[in-house]
């Protein structure tokens, strides 16, 4: 399964998904876990998830893990992974592994910190 992590697909279909010129979605890695958890804990106050659970998703499917940056400012993140339609992974639970025959990409979480929204991070 090939994954596109750009807005080219939407633009080709005539949909507007423009980011401000000073913003970039770039790959997230294990070193970004403190910032991912900081934002998650601020935004999802009733849906806590352990650092290790986010870390497992980053290790299992790094292609599906992005961060939204403005210069050196971490404004948000997106976490997704290959999965099977009709099965919803429980929150704050380890996946163990990805399915052998995935048929979808499960979008676990996409969060833009309120400071990024207030500054119109996405138009």
Comma- or semicolon-separated keywords:
single chain, 4-stranded antiparallel β-sheet, 25% helix, 25% strand, Aminopeptidase, 123 residues, alpha+beta
Question: Can you tell me about this structure?
Answer:
The protein has helices at residues 8-12, 33-43, 51-60, 114-118, and strands spanning 23-27, 65-70, 73-83, 104-112. By secondary structure, the chain is an alpha+beta fold. It has a single domain (21-118), classed as Gcn5-related N-acetyltransferase (GNAT) (Aminopeptidase, 3-Layer(aba) Sandwich). Strands 1-2-3-4 form a four-stranded antiparallel sheet. The two termini are 29 Å apart. Residues 5-17 have low confidence and may be disordered.
CATH class: Alpha Beta
So what's the overall shape? globular
Number of helices: 4
Q: Average pLDDT value? A: 83
Describe the biggest sheet? Answer: 4 strands, antiparallel
CATH superfamily (homologous) name: Gcn5-related N-acetyltransferase (GNAT)
What does this entry show, briefly?
This protein is of the alpha+beta class and 123 residues long. The chain is 25% helix and 25% strand.
Present the secondary structure layout.
Layout: H1 8-12, E1 23-27, H2 33-43, H3 51-60, E2 65-70, E3 73-83, E4 104-112, H4 114-118
Antiparallel strand pairs: 1-2, 2-3, 3-4
């Amino acid at each position: 399964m090939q994954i596109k992590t750009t807005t080219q697909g939407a633009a080709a279909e005539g949909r507007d998904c423009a980011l401000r010129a000073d913003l970039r979605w770039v790959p997230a890695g294990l070193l970004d876990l403190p910032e991912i958890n900081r934002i998650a804990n601020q935004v999802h106050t009733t849906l806590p998830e352990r650092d290790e659970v986010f870390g497992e998703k980053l290790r299992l499917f790094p292609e599906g893990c992005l961060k939204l940056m403005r210069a050196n400012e971490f404004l948000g993140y997106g976490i997704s992974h290959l999965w099977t339609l009709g099965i919803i992974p429980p929150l704050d639970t380890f996946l163990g592994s990805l399915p052998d025959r995935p048929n979808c990409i499960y979008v676990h979480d996409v969060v833009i910190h309120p400071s990024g929204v207030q500054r119109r991070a996405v138009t």
